[in-house]
Automatic annotation (TrEMBL):
Domain of life: Bacteria
Pfam families (UniProt xref): adh_short
InterPro entries registered for this protein in UniProt: KR_dom, NAD(P)-bd_dom_sf, Sc_DH/Rdtase_CS, SDR, SDR_fam
Family designation: Belongs to the short-chain dehydrogenases/reductases (SDR) family.
SMART domains: PKS_KR
SUPFAM superfamilies: NAD(P)-binding Rossmann-fold domains
Protein name in the entry: SDR family oxidoreductase
Family annotation (Gene3D superfamilies): NAD(P)-binding Rossmann-like Domain
């Protein structure tokens, strides 16, 4: 089993939800974690909460995955702080759900630019650091990345793209010793799409479950690669 103490991760969209759950799980194993958000205040609040654990250190970074220079700056801050990057988790995402005839141009572009282009920008900016460490790239796709549904044209397009992009990137990057996995969750108890987690969410995947999954992937012997993982609630409501 691979030891994770003092290794370093960068998680986009890490101030809440899935990203926060992954950060907490990695830090519990002794990893240092940088979390990004478009809101520096949100990132700082989340980092302060994560740092209460006493294991690993959290760094707050203001960054927008839709801006390549912003992603380059995020990687630069991680390297200046810790000198290495062992794991990059492309987690930042949004959802606009409407019939095609009602979906606005702005909603389309925000969804694609955040959920798909943002994943490309993240791994592109982090490539040299991951190559140096023979690190890991994980994208957070969705079951919506292989299953289409009404009102989901923009979201489906973005997540189908993330799934395909990550699988192709896996074939490109493995020759450098970089492993790539896409995780495709179903219903997760998060703040996504204006939902507020509550007591009725017990049947859903919890953020700590996905955090444990990322820890397991990091600890797995590098000769073995689960390249695409579908995750769903055992018993949907």
């Amino acid at each position: 089993m691979q030891r994770l103490e003092n290794k370093v991760a960068l998680i986009t969209g890490g101030s809440k939800g899935i990203g926060f759950g992954i950060a907490a799980a990695l830090m519990a194993e002794g990893m240092n974690v940088a979390i990004t958000s478009r809101s520096l205040e949100s990132a700082q609040e989340a980092a302060a909460e994560l740092n209460k654990s006493g294991k690993g250190k959290a760094l707050a970074i203001e960054a927008d995955v839709r801006d390549y220079t912003s992603q380059e700056n995020a990687i630069k801050q991680v390297m200046e702080k810790w000198g290495r990057l062992d794991l990059l988790v492309a987690n930042a995402g949004i959802g606009h759900f409407a019939p095609v005839e009602e979906l606005s141009l702005a909603q389309w572009h925000e969804t694609i630019d955040t959920n798909l282009t943002g994943v490309f920008y993240s791994v592109k900016a982090g490539f040299e650091a991951l190559k140096e460490s023979k690190g890991y790239f994980i994208s957070i796709s969705s079951l919506a990345g292989t299953n289409f549904f009404a009102n989901g044209s923009a979201y489906n397009a973005s997540k189908f793209g993330v799934t395909g992009f990550t699988q192709a990137a896996m074939l490109d990057l493995r020759k450098y010793g970089i492993r790539c996995t896409t995780i495709m969750p179903g219903s997760v108890s998060t703040y996504f799409n204006n939902h507020v987690p509550n007591d009725k969410d017990g049947w859903k995947i919890q953020i700590e479950d996905l955090g444990q999954m990322v820890v397991d992937l990091m600890q797995m012997h590098p000769r073995t690669l689960p390249s695409k993982i579908e995750v769903r609630p055992t018993m949907p409501a």
